[in-house]
UniProtKB/TrEMBL annotation:
Family note: Belongs to the ABC transporter superfamily. Lipid exporter (TC 3.A.1.106) family.
One term of GO molecular function: ATPase-coupled lipid transmembrane transporter activity
Domain of life of the native organism: Bacteria
Matches recorded under SMART domains: AAA (SM00382)
Keyword annotations: ATP-binding, Cell membrane, Membrane, Nucleotide-binding, Transmembrane, Transmembrane helix, Transport
Species of the source: Phytohabitans houttuyneae
Keyword Lipid metabolism in annotation: no
Protein's name in the database: ABC transporter domain-containing protein
């Protein structure tokens, strides 16, 4: 498929991408390379200019809105939390979920302990005094919501803000849980996240210039290998 926002500026000049069910794909590339644009096409915020985006062989244009929102869930940096209680925020992933199911999702993600320790537990208002959550905790609540939604495809735009070490560990654990055997597209900003992906796509000016498992790309010594070295060095 091809895509542009404005006819005089091609963004994805010729994208041909097939993601098998269950595969977690990390998108990496410089700012402006087209990572978010691909994510938005998969979530059908936009339609391609030419070609199609299909889910299980069905053109997204033929999927009704409700089914599409259930099948493809996008967790971005902006939509982490809205007003309401912690439970409301998690239950938004599946409005019919019982309290036990909400708590089970939080447990699976590793968020139950901190939620339980909040002034009003699951009934704590996330925007009220005393209910203020740290950046890491907010991410965990958003992950618990996505886990409960259990979408066919998860799109994750990883937060760029750095976390303290204990929160980073919790978030990485949560990511492993939520990405396990899931079809997922992750706009990755952390080395540790790319390393848990099955496959890395390196984008440059809207084109896939490298495609393979992270370990293979490191051995082949190309762009991802250089990026990996840079990321790795910045952690030391
Ligand atoms: N709504 C829009 N209208 C016009 N151009 C846009 C729009 N959104 C993105 N672009 C342009 O499309 C190109 C790809 O942007 P995109 O956000 O997909 O890149 P990215 O790889 O996700 O970058 P980043 O890492 O900074 O988020 C950029 O040149 C950007 O300026």
């Amino acid at each position: 498929m091809t895509f542009h926002y404005r006819a005089d500026k091609p963004i994805l000049p010729a994208l041909d991408l097939d993601i098998p069910a269950g595969q977690t794909v990390a998108l990496v590339g410089a700012t402006g390379a087209g990572k978010s644009t691909i994510a938005k096409l998969v979530a059908r915020f936009y339609d391609p200019v030419d070609g199609t985006v299909t889910l299980d062989g069905v053109d997204l244009r033929d999927v009704n809105d409700t089914d599409l929102r259930r099948a493809v869930v996008m967790v971005t940096q902006e939509n982490h939390l809205f007003s309401g209680t912690v439970a409301d925020n998690i239950r938004f992933g599946r409005p019919t979920a019982t309290d036990d199911e909400v708590a089970d999702a939080a447990r699976a993600i590793g968020a139950h302990a901190f939620i339980d320790a909040l002034p009003h537990g699951y009934d704590t208002d996330v925007h009220r005094r005393g209910g203020r959550l740290s950046a890491g905790q907010r991410q965990l609540v958003a992950f618990a919501r996505a886990f409960l939604a259990d979408p066919t495809v998860l799109i994750l735009d990883e937060a760029t803000s750095s976390l303290d070490v204990p929160s980073e560990r919790l978030v990485q654990h949560a990511l492993r849980t939520i990405l396990r055997e899931r079809t997922a597209l992750v706009i990755a900003h952390r080395l540790s996240t790319v390393e848990i992906a099955d496959r890395v796509l390196v984008l440059e000016a809207g084109r896939i210039v490298e495609d393979g498992p992270p370990a293979t790309l490191i051995t082949s010594g190309g762009r991802y290998a250089r990026l990996h070295t840079l990321w790795h060095d910045s952690l030391i």
